[in-house]
Amino acid sequence: MNGIKALQSLGQSIWYDNMDRELLISGAMAELVQQGVTGITSNPTIFEKAIKSSTAYDTAVREADATTVEQLFDEISRSDIQEACRLLMPVYQETRGKDGYVSIEVAPVLAHDAVGTVQEGRRLFEAIGMPNVMIKVPGTPEGIKAVQALTEAGINVNVTLIFSLTLYKRVMEAYIRGLHKRLNSGLDVQSVASVASFFVSRVDAAVDAQLKEMNASESLFGTAAIANAKMAYALFEETFSSSDFKELAAAGANVQRILWASTGQKNAAYDPLMYVNELVGPNSVNTVPPATLDLLQKRNDYKVTVEQNVELARQQIQSLAEVGIDIEDVVNSLLTQGLQAFNQSYASLLDALRSKQEQVR
């Protein structure tokens, strides 16, 4: 049993945080699916790297009908996502819609535009035309409004850039409200799926930087991210075992699985699998970058860990507060930084496409 299958046996899906046409064409992505990968996530940064590093997009760029680079990216990304959805369709069918998803993100410029996000989410879902596509929406207040509307419309949503427990609770509530509205309208709730992408390693990077400036105790370093994530999982279990979800569950609704994002280790001093080992649990997803997937595959002795030591996690967050680190302030700043980074990545992606156009002419 490989590492992916070992984690699956414990109720956790492994998705691949990478999208590259070369991987699709060569069969490498199909091989990963055979090994047990059951989903793929993408974002502008991933597409930028793929376009810069591969000649697989040259013909598409040369022959595209697009008049702007934004339209060109739309054509290229939709084509890749459709192909990935076809690749994962057997997984989607075998798991009856519980798994087998490919995520594509709405343009970062819509992060604070609820109406625009809903319109773009609908457009992408219809244009891709595959039931196993997920529309990525940022966990901003406006994004959360869009989550409810898209869920009510029967569109699968991956809510991204979640760092805060407060915002995470609102994300789950928005998903549940959207399902209730569908059910009350006599619409099917079984075919709707969603994940909430809770970011991990960036929390440690931010908190550790503050601890270093304070010359704080070494015992506090590398504790914030996993503690924050374990408290999020406890909130997940509480929310989806509540009476508010029971009626939906009886109608066949899916829980909104928690997805661990940013799980590649950013500090070389830490175990490169620390954000895998400590966050194993049922009804969860871990979307991992290539290097982490390679390491993950070499082990098969995983065990459920995310439900353990939750009280210790609360104490660790309290210990950080006692030295002057407010975790809510940290995670709110990380959301702002994440949105800025996505906007910058999108701009860089468009620049890369312009360069590619010049190269292939």
Write structural notes for this entry.
The protein is globular and about 60 Å long. By secondary structure, it is an alpha/beta fold. It is built from 16 helices and 8 strands. The chain has a single domain, classed as Aldolase class I (TIM Barrel), CATH 3.20.20.70. An 8-stranded parallel sheet has the order 1-8-7-6-5-4-3-2. The chain has helices at residues 3-8, 21-26, 28-35, 44-53, 58-63, 69-94, 114-128, 141-152, 165-184, 201-214, 224-240, 243-250, 274-277, 290-297, 310-322, 327-360; strands at 12-16, 39-40, 101-105, 133-138, 157-162, 194-199, 257-261, 284-288. Its main location: cytoplasm. It is an enzyme of class 2 (transferase).
Radius of gyration of CA atoms, rounded to a whole number: 20 Å
Top-tier CATH class:
Alpha Beta
Strand order of the largest sheet: 1-8-7-6-5-4-3-2
End-to-end CA span: 48 Å
- The overall number of domains is 1
Helix content: 55-70%
> What would the average pLDDT be, to the nearest integer?
96
Instruction: Look at the structure and name the CATH superfamily.
Output: Aldolase class I
The secondary-structure element order is: HEHHEHHHEHEHEHEHHHEHEHHH
Low-confidence stretches: none
| Structural class determined from secondary elements | alpha/beta
Number of helices: 16
Protein name: Transaldolase
Pathway: Carbohydrate degradation; pentose phosphate pathway; D-glyceraldehyde 3-phosphate and beta-D-fructose 6-phosphate from D-ribose 5-phosphate and D-xylulose 5-phosphate (non-oxidative stage): step 2/3
GO molecular function: transaldolase activity
InterPro entries: Aldolase_TIM, TAL/FSA, Transaldolase_2, Transaldolase_AS
